[in-house]
Amino acid sequence: MASWFYASEGKQQGPFPEGQFRDLVAQGVVRPDTLVWSEGMAGWQKAVEIPSLIGGGGAPPVIPAGGPPMMGSGGYAGGGGGGSLSVDFSILEFTWRTLVLVIGSCFVIPVPWLFVWYTKWIVPCIKVPGRPNLSFTGNAMTLVPWFFGFIVLAIALGFVGSQLLSNLLFIVQIVLYWLLIKWMIANLASNGQPLALSFTGSVWAYIGWNLLFAISIITIIGWAWVAAAQMRWFCRSIEGTRREIVFKGSGLDILWRGIVAAILCSLIIPIPWVYRWIMNWFASQTELAPRGAQSRM
């Protein structure tokens, strides 16, 4: 007999045997708008959408059975199964939003708000197995002190004119990107519930990867293998999910796609299609696998 879970105040409740769970429904503990999950469901759904549970709604899509889709204090971590990510967005919408972002960024001041606005659009375009309705909940005001603090520092160092301080500014910029990554991952949500994910890669490792990538440019082609290795490190550093995040793309895959993308982007018009093609490939190479699956292979 199936076991059921339900969400209450952002926390996972259960498992409950089906009979006991139906008693909770009858008592009004589980309401029509309560998010519920049972084995065989792709993700959390409102109770009213489950046939014969409360009534109404259509049948949810069926996937192979997995583990509970929540974990931690309120985080929704999806089922125990695996699968690749995917990306899908309208070329027209991508084009006008990107133009607004680029043009607006020329005025400097709107950058934090434009970045969050753009991120809130692009994140739901990413489809993750077992995590329906992905969204971004970050607030632009978090970025304001980082962004404008960096601008003030850059202007001050520009007046000093020291090469050593200019190199220091480069390191500060990398650290800010590291903070940005941690902030973005911590603000991902599914079905309106925080995923409780975190990026645990150290700032020193992140600086090291970026310096290695910069050095690899002089090899002409070596940057692609560094990029692939960095992506694998990045995926391993995301915690808060019962599934491993694995990047399977190779350096050769990145290299030839990078060359094709550079050639096509030089023609300007194909840029939106190239961007979607590259994003979809990276997504398709990023998989969610049961913990320990890689070690058994």
TrEMBL record:
Question: Where does the GYF domain lie?
Answer: 4-53
Pfam families, per the entry:
GYF_2
Work out whether the entry's keyword set contains Ion transport.
no
Tell me the InterPro entries matching this sequence. GYF_2 (IPR025640)
Question: Which UniProt keywords are listed?
Answer: Membrane, Transmembrane, Transmembrane helix
- Segments crossing the lipid bilayer: 99-123, 143-161, 168-186, 206-233, 254-275
Task: Tell me what this protein is called.
Answer: GYF domain-containing protein
Organism encoding this protein: Bradyrhizobium ottawaense
Q: What is the taxonomic lineage of the source species? A: Bacteria, Pseudomonadati, Pseudomonadota, Alphaproteobacteria, Hyphomicrobiales
